[in-house]
Amino acid sequence: MYPFNKITTLLLAAFMAASIYACVEKGNSQNATAESSAGLAVMDKIPALLDRPENLWYGNEWQTTQNAYGKARQELIKDPNAKEPWLNLAEVFILEARVTGEHPHYYPAALQVLDEMLSKNFDPKDMRDMDLKFRGLSDKASVELSLHEFAKALETGKQAVEINPHNAAVYGVLVDANVELGQYEEAVKMADKMVSIRPDLRSYSRVSYLREIYGDVNGSIEAMDMAVKAGAPGTDQTAWTRLTLGNLYKHYGKDKEAEMQYLIILEERPDYPFALAALGNIETERKNYTKALDYLQKAAAIIPEVSFYEGMAKVYKATGQQDQLQKTVDEIIAMMEDDAAHGHNMDLEFAKVYADLKGDPAKALAYAQKEYDRRPDNIDVNGEMADLYFKMGDNQKATMHLEKALRTGSKKPEWLALK
Q1: Which whole-number Å values give the CA distances from 377 to 28, 80, 154, 188, 404, in the listed order?
Q2: Which of 82, 147, 145 has its CA nearest to residue 117?
Q3: In this model, does residue 32 exceed pLDDT 90?
Q4: CB under 8 Å, gap of 24 or more: what pairs does 216-222 form?
Q5: First-to-last CA distance in the chain?
Q6: Average model confidence (pLDDT) across the chain
Q7: Element (H, E) at 202
Q8: From the CB of residue 362, how many other CB atoms can be counted at a distance below 10 Å?
């Protein structure tokens, strides 16, 4: 038999061990509950991933996108303080905005998760931490460009460059923002830096834009062709770049070359809606209106892109279908108002609709003036102002804006026709 004091000691030890175990278990349970509550709370901050139409799945692309969204979501539920999952969500939303045309949902969603990420503390001595901040700022600037918030995009892009001045992609943001603000010499400097760091699809396409602005149409086409060849066939980015090449050909009267580019896109990325609509616009110019509508309606059935409806409206206007024209224009304006309500600056687009489809240059001018007040040096804005003033019979103001539009040596046919 154990002595009494030894038994007592053993019992006390057992009791203490049980008490400690119970406290640890209670603590673990409380921690788990707190983590679970935090995880549930973060779910409310994660915007939804909308379903894609089946003809936009593009092989495994949609499955990969869903997996990326689901993985980021689970990581945030597990650790709401993590940063990279917020960034990954933003990049999913940016891609989906382009692919699906659901801009009113995805651009605000991308900004929401980027702001959530960028609100966290970053350690200036931690290279990985600062790289995440750099990527977050770069993505935010890209979204601001898409929302036509060009001044904001420029400032956000500059913040990113301060963190990493050796990344080519962020200079693309600075090129685009400077172009939209009419700061073309600065845009050229940024493009030179971009190409020197990494000559690829993105940098060649910026060179193309700038060459067109300065009137080098053949050089612009050459650079965009280089951009296409630098891309991976079948990807959204390459399809968009080839579409831009086709649009360049079309803008300068080379419809056959344009048509070939659009058809190649559809071989590599079937049912790509922008290529379908582009073919529809070519058929409109050829006065093959039935074929044009087939293409445009097919594109519009895939994604709700305003420009597709504008293409249909032009067909209805050309064929005298006034009821359909009015209905379609009403749909266009409703879609644009929805975009504007979700942070997308649409003033220049409203101006074009009121000028070209509603025949109301006075109202168009009111919208264009708001855009001009924000971007007085942009040649496209000045070109639109010139056209509107000519339509209203104010040749003096029209000429002033036309001179500003042509100051870089642009060869845009619609502006040269106003001279």
Answers
A1: 62, 44, 15, 15, 7
A2: 82
A3: no
A4: 217/248, 217/252, 217/411, 220/248, 221/245, 221/248, 221/249
A5: 116
A6: 92
A7: helix 201-213
A8: 11
Sign of CA dihedral 249, 411, 211, 307: negative
User: Kind and range of the H or E element at 26?
Assistant: helix 4-43
- Distance of alpha carbon 419 from its chain centroid, rounded? 34
Residue 139: per-residue pLDDT: 98
Assess contact for 93 and 109: CB atoms under 8 A.
Answer: yes
DSSP letter at 83? S
Contact 180, 372 (CB under 8 A): no
Rounded Cα gap, residues 205 and 191, in angstroms = 10
* DSSP one-letter code for 200: S
Written as one letter, the residue type at 321 is Q
Which residue spans of the chain are classified as CATH 1.25.40.10? 346-419
Q: Which two tokens stand for residue 271?
A: 């049912």
Strand, helix or coil for residue 182: coil
Question: What is the pLDDT at residue 397?
Answer: 98
Closest to 248 measured CA to CA, from 209, 206, 305, 299: 209
Counting Cα atoms < 13 Å in the Cβ hemisphere of 71 gives 11
Could you tell me the CA-to-CA distances from 228 to 208, 263, 402 in Å, in that order?
Answer: 11, 14, 32
Radius of gyration of the chain measured on its C-alpha atoms: 28
Indicate the range of 14-28, 142-156, 213-227, 282-296 predicted with least confidence: 14-28
Give the CA distances from residue 122 to residues 35, 73, 85, 116, 302, in Å, rounded to whole numbers and listed in that order. 22, 21, 15, 13, 41
Angle between helices 201-213 and 236-251 (to 10 degrees): 20
Architecture of domain 346-419: Alpha Horseshoe (1.25)
| 197/396 Cα distance (integer angstroms) | 45
CA distances from 39 to 113, 117, 219, 388 (A): 15, 16, 53, 55
Question: Do 234 and 269 meet the contact criterion of CB atoms below 8 Å apart?
Answer: yes
